[in-house]
């Protein structure tokens, strides 16, 4: 089986399905950890709809989809925060395909897009409980850094030089 990575419109049906899978997993993990229940269906729908991903559209953003054996398996996006800094967004790989090499391909595509947009540095935020993500970022050369935002659920911040 082979991996392929390609740009995808942020509002395509494939992107929407992967956004739903991503958000459902991270939201349910947070609620199960902190409140011992999954995300309420109405909250899930409201939050998925609220983040349209417009910031991942050209000319200052990009979204990538990785496919495994031709099937959509995950996403990674990038957007410019300022002329020299990009932000890595929506890094997600379906649970059953993790550990097979797809996530590094996605992150690499996003980093290349950030460089093409002129970024010299890429940043991201994540949570304590997303240990798989934190491990991935460390393996790919990201280092923990000071907070660059005040997102409610952000607990860890990473950065990497691109040049």
From TrEMBL:
<keyword id="KW-0808">Transferase</keyword>
<dbReference type="GO" id="GO:0016747">
    <property type="term" value="F:acyltransferase activity, transferring groups other than amino-acyl groups"/>
</dbReference>
<dbReference type="InterPro" id="IPR000182">
    <property type="entry name" value="GNAT_dom"/>
</dbReference>
<protein>
    <submittedName>
        <fullName>GNAT family N-acetyltransferase</fullName>
    </submittedName>
</protein>
<feature type="domain" description="N-acetyltransferase">
    <location>
        <begin position="17"/>
        <end position="163"/>
    </location>
</feature>
<dbReference type="Pfam" id="PF00583">
    <property type="entry name" value="Acetyltransf_1"/>
</dbReference>
<dbReference type="InterPro" id="IPR016181">
    <property type="entry name" value="Acyl_CoA_acyltransferase"/>
</dbReference>
<dbReference type="InterPro" id="IPR050832">
    <property type="entry name" value="Bact_Acetyltransf"/>
</dbReference>
<keyword id="KW-0012">Acyltransferase</keyword>
């Amino acid at each position: 089986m082979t991996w392929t990575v390609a740009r995808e419109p942020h509002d395509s049906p494939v992107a929407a399905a992967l956004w739903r899978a991503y958000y459902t997993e991270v939201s349910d993990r947070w609620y199960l950890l902190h409140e011992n229940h999954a995300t309420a269906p109405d909250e899930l729908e409201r939050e998925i709809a609220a983040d349209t991903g417009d910031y991942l559209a050209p000319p200052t953003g990009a979204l990538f989809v990785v496919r495994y054996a031709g099937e959509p398996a995950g996403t990674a996006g990038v957007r410019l925060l300022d002329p020299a800094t990009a932000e890595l967004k929506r890094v997600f790989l379906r649970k059953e395909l993790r550990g097979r090499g797809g996530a590094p391909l996605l992150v690499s595509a996003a980093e290349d897009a950030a460089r093409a947009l002129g970024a010299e540095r890429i940043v991201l935020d994540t949570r304590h409980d997303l240990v798989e993500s934190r491990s991935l970022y460390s393996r790919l050369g990201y280092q923990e850094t000071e907070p660059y935002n005040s997102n409610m659920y952000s607990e860890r911040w990473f950065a990497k030089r691109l040049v």
